[in-house]
């Protein structure tokens, strides 16, 4: 139960006051208003120290034999400037898809609307610092104490509702909390935009890889079907074994599986792109399917087997899509990430709420008043000489609330501690994302180069094995094994190229754009 103390500080009502008597209470009200906000009960907030090392440690790059190349790829410098997506994306088709996503993506639209809502909430909070004026017409009927008869009173004019004088800064700290929440929401919108650009870029790179995967599977299937048809003719003539025939059947089935997997993956990536951009992309706006392979001619036992050692991976269409991301080794770069900024602003809002909760434990001073015409008869309400005004001040303080106010202070203090932990966690997550992406710059490049060497070696082995089979120096099973190894090596090279580019996308996102 609450027992407030009501203190009437000033009450003045008159029908015909001199201007000087009207200015005295107004001067008092202005003086009280000027004192508002002088106190600040919110605790002093300092940005927590970064709970991560000051420099990114890259053991893989540091342990590399070519230290000069590692240093060139990862210069130890001050935090690099952010790279806007327009400078980072080079491919014109990808640029159009990113622009479409930024204009039509529903998640990003919700994030923008959240910012508008937070801005409106801030405006509503700022309005609490000013009085609310209204115009009203009232009629009262009450018994006259001296005559015992009912007396009527009519008033018309401006009315000042309960206006809290922010002497202890309660409203101001709530304004600060709303402002920090707006900034946090804006940072969340930028984080959503960053994620959308990264997701569209990743999907585009995947579509480029899908196109090569489909081309590779189609070429392999056409070649293996031709080889299978020839092997069947040879098996019917007794020139090869049933084991070799079944080996070719297995290779054809393997190529068909790879083709269907690539087609399904491309369809899923197209659906993902449509979801991100908010519209079904045009057929000519995304990486298209490769042309179908030429129809195989009827096999003949006297015709040589088609060459299966050619590769569709001699060129890398993923290489020129993105620009290099400037990245240093200073961990301060994490402070510009939108999610870290959002956590910091939420920490500021939680700290401001402590001040508002503390101020609620002290008296609240409010002003009420009105000014206008007053008369005992409605017909004389708007006649001259009937001007009247009232001004009242009130101080309210709770003396017993069963610990409710103190519990609110404790809750906001714990909320601030939670916000500190969330801020530190955001910094730690950002550190891990950036460290992993920086480490991947050198490791993925080295893996791609090694995979390219393996693919080239498997291609040469398949070519030499094919020549040996034609010369009778190797069996058909040797050629089947060589072809199988070649397809696996080329598929691995394609996936490694895609993973390297996706790591670059992750680095750009981890650095905050």
From TrEMBL:
Q: Which domain of life is it from?
A: Bacteria
Q: How does it sit in the membrane?
A: Lipid-anchor
- Tell me yes or no: is Membrane among this UniProt entry's keywords: yes
Q: Does the keyword Transmembrane apply?
A: yes
- Pfam families assigned to the protein according to its UniProt record, in alphabetical order: OEP (PF02321)
What keywords tag this UniProt record? Lipoprotein, Membrane, Palmitate, Transmembrane, Transmembrane beta strand
Q: Where in the cell is it found?
A: Cell membrane
Q: Which positions make up the signal peptide?
A: none
Q: What is its main location?
A: membrane
| PANTHER family, per the entry | CATION EFFLUX SYSTEM PROTEIN CUSC (PTHR30203:SF32), OUTER MEMBRANE CATION EFFLUX PROTEIN (PTHR30203)
Q: Which family does it belong to?
A: Belongs to the outer membrane factor (OMF) (TC 1.B.17) family.
* Protein name, per record: Efflux transporter outer membrane subunit
């Amino acid at each position: 139960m609450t027992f407030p103390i009501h203190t009437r500080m000033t009450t003045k009502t008159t029908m015909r006051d001199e201007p000087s008597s009207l200015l005295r209470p107004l001067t008092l009200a202005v003086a009280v208003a000027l004192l508002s906000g002088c106190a600040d009960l919110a605790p002093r907030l300092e940005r927590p120290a970064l709970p991560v090392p000051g420099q990114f440690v890259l053991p893989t790059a540091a342990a590399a034999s070519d230290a000069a190349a590692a240093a060139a790829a990862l210069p130890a410098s001050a935090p690099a400037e952010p790279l806007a997506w327009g400078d980072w994306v080079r491919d014109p088709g990808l640029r159009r898809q990113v622009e479409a996503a930024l204009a039509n993506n529903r998640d990003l639209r919700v994030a923008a609307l959240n910012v508008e809502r937070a801005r409106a909430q801030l405006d509503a909070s700022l309005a609490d610092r000013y009085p609310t004026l209204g115009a009203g017409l009232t009629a009262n009927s009450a018994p006259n104490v001296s005559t015992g008869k009912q007396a009527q009173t009519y008033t018309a004019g401006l009315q000042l509702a309960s206006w809290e004088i922010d002497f202890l800064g309660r409203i101001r700290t709530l304004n600060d909390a709303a402002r920090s929440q707006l900034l946090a929401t804006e940072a969340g919108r930028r984080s959503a935009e960053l994620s959308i650009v990264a997701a569209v870029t990743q999907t585009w790179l995947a579509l480029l890889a899908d196109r090569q995967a489909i081309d590779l599977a189609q070429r392999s299937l056409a070649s293996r079907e031709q080889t299978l048809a020839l092997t069947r003719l040879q098996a019917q003539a007794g020139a090869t074994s049933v084991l070799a025939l079944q080996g070719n059947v297995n290779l054809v089935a393997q190529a068909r599986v790879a083709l269907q997997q690539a087609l399904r993956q491309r369809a899923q990536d197209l659906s993902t792109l449509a979801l991100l951009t908010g519209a079904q992309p045009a057929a000519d706006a995304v990486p298209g399917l490769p042309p179908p392979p030429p129809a195989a001619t009827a096999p003949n036992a006297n015709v040589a087997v088609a060459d299966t050692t050619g590769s569709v991976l001699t060129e890398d269409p993923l290489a020129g899509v993105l620009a290099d991301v400037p990245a240093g080794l200073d961990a301060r770069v994490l402070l510009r990430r939108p999610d870290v900024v959002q956590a910091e602003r939420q920490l500021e809002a939680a700290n401001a709420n402590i001040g508002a909760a503390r101020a609620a434990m002290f008296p609240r001073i409010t002003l009420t008043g009105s000014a206008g015409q007053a008369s005992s008869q409605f017909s004389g309400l708007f006649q001259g000489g009937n001007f009247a005004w009232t001004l009242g001040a009130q101080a309210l303080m709770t003396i017993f609330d069963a610990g409710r106010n103190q519990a609110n202070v404790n809750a906001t203090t714990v909320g601030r501690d939670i916000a500190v932990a969330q801020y530190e966690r955001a910094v730690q997550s950002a550190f891990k994302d950036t460290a992993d992406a920086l480490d991947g710059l050198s490791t993925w490049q080295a893996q791609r180069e090694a995979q390219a060497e393996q693919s080239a070696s498997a291609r040469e082995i398949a070519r030499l094995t094919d020549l040996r089979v034609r010369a009778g120096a190797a069996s058909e099973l040797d050629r089947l094994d060589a072809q199988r190894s070649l397809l696996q090596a080329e598929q691995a090279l394609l996936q490694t190229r895609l993973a390297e580019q996706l790591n670059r996308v992750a680095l750009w996102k981890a650095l905050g754009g």
